[in-house]
Amino acid sequence: MRPVRGGAGLESPLIETRQLGKDYSLGDHVVHALRDVSVTIGAGEMVAVMGPSGSGKSTFMTILGCLDTPTTGQYRLEGRDVSGLDDDQLSAIRNRRIGFVFQQFNLLPRITAQGNVEMPLLYRDVPARERHERARRKLEVVGLATRAEHRPSQLSGGQQQRVAIARALVNDPVLLLADEPTGNLDTRTSAEIMAVVQALHRTGLTIVLVTHEPDIAQYAQRILSFRDGELVGDEPVQNRRDARAA
Amino acid sequence: MKLATTVQMAAAALQTNRVRTALTALGVIIGVGAVVTMMAIGAGAQSRVAEQIRSLGSNLIIVLSGSITAGGVRLGSGSQLTITEDDARAIQREVTGVDVAAPVIRGGVQVVFGNSNWSTALQGVTPEYFRARDWDVTSGRALTQDDQDTAAKVTVLGQTVADNLFGATDPVGQTVRIKAAPFTVVGVLSRKGQSTRGEDQDDTLMIPLSTAQKKVLGTSQANARSVATILVKVADPARLGEAESDIRRLLRERHHLQPGQDDDFATRNLSEILASQEAASRVLSLLLAAVAAVSLVVGGIGIMNIMLVSVTERTREIGLRRAVGARRRDILGQFLLEAMFVSLAGGLIGIVGGIAGSYAIGYIFEWSVLISWSAVVPAFLFAAAVGVFFGYYPARKASRLKPIEALRYE
User: What is the ipTM of this complex?
Assistant: First the structure.
C-alpha cells in the first residue's frame, strides 16, 4: 500500500509557490513575514530551509504545511491550489497528505507510543484493528516496535522523536515537514534521527527540513535560504552528508 | 470522526485527571441531589396538606338554612329552618355527581354518665353523615337506617366526650343520660382532630336525626322535617362548583323562589381553603426547587471554569491534533463531550444521592417525602443541559485556536 506519490505525476511539481506573501498586523503597522516567495520542489526531493530566527522560514513551513493560508500569492500542492481552501479542507490535507515532525516532539504524555502513532488515524475513521496494524508497521520502520507500549516519559529524546516520525508517516503522506527535528537532541542522537529521515527519503518521500544548523542542512540535497521574509538563496548541496556514515 | 471514538477520547481524558474530574462533578452532584431532595420534600409537604384538607372534607358542600328578616332585622344564617330532610333526599337523587347528602340538626346538651357530666354539641344525623365525612367508629358501630326509622335512643360518642365521661373504661354498651333521657352508647368515633378553624371536632355526640327531632331538640313549628344543615359529598372534587350551582337551582325550585328573590339558604365549601393552602405549599416547593436549581447552575459554572483551565493546559495538544488533521468540530466535540460526561455522571450520582437523602430526611425528621419521576427526569435533563451550556464556551474556545499558535504555545 504505497501512497500515490505526487498525484499529478512528474509533469507537475509536488510543491509550487508563486509570489507567496504573508502579512501580520501588529497594532498599527503590518509585518511582512514572507514576501514574494516563488519556489518549486519536485516529488522525491529533500530540501533544507535555513535562515536566522525571524527570517520567515517558519512562516514558510507553516504555509507549506497548510497550518495557515498565505495573504498573497499562490500555493499549489500536487497541482492543486490550496490557498483558498476552507478550514475543514485544510484539515483533511494535513491529515492525509502531510506528516509533521516538531522540535518538541509533541507526543501526548499519557498514552503509549502506539496510541500516539495511531492518533492521526482517529480523524479519518480507520477501524481500530487497522489502526493497530498500521501504527505497528510504522513503529517498525523507525525501529521502535519493541517500545510500542511505552509511554513518552519512558523513552529517550531520540526515541520520542522516532515515535513522532512514525506518527507523521502513519497516513502515508506525500510530504514530510520537519521543523527543527534535532533542535532538542545531542549530536549523536541528531545523526540517528537524520539517518531515519534520509532512509525515508531513499524510499521516495519528499522531505522539507527547517533548521538553523548548517550541519543538519548538509543532510539535504538542496538548501533554501531565507532572510527578512525573502528567499535569498536556492543552491544544491555540494558535499552531502550521509547519516549512515556517522 | 465517529462519535464512538470521540466518546472514548473524552473518557480517556477524564480518566487521566480523576481527582479533578470528581471535584468538577461534585458541583453537579450536589446541585442535582439538592433539586431531587428539595422537590421530594416540597411534593411531600404538598400531598400532606392536601390529605389534611381532604380529611376535613374537601369535597363537601354545606347547605345552611337561610335567615329570616323580622321587622327589618335579619336574624342570621340558620335563624329559620328553611331546608328539610326532603331537600337532602332530592339533592342526593337529582343532582349529578353527588355521592351522599346528609341532613343534620344540632343543639347543645349536657350528657351525664354516673356522677360525671359534660356539655357538648349534639348532632342529629342519618347514616349518610358518616359517609359524607369519611368518619368511622373505632369501637362499636355507627348509626344505622334502622336506628333512624325507629327513632332509637342510641348514641355514638366523639373521642373527647368518651374520654371525659368514661376515661379508660369502654363506653360501648353503657347508658348515658341526655336531657334526662337514657341513651345506649353503641359506638365511639375515630379521632378527627382540629378543624381549619381550630375547633375540636371530636367534642360531639351523635344520635339518630329522628330521635333528635322527636325526643331531644324538638322540631320547628313551621316544618317538622326541617334541618339546620345538609352536608353534601361530591364524588369528584373537580366538579364541586358545578354541583354547588345545581344544588342552588334545585333548592330555589323546591322553595318556590321567584327570580330576583334572595336565596333562603346558603351554600359553603372548603375548596377555597384547599386551593389557597395548596397554592401556598406549591409556592414553597417551587421556592425550594429554585434554590436547588441555583446550586446546579453554580455546579455548571464549576464545569466551565475547569474546562477553561483544561483548554489552556492542553493548548499544545489541541494544536497537535489540529496539525495531524482534526477539524474544528472534532475538537469542539471532544471538549463538549468531556463536559457532558462530567455533568451526566454527576447527574446520575446526584439522583441516587438525592433519593437516598430524601428518604434519610423523611426518616430522621418524620416528614413525608414524595419522589416522583416528574422531578427526577427534569433534574437529570437539566444537568445534561448545564453540561452542554457551560461546556460549549470552553469547547468553542478550544476549537477556535489557530493550529500553529496552539502548537507554539508555551
Answer: 0.90
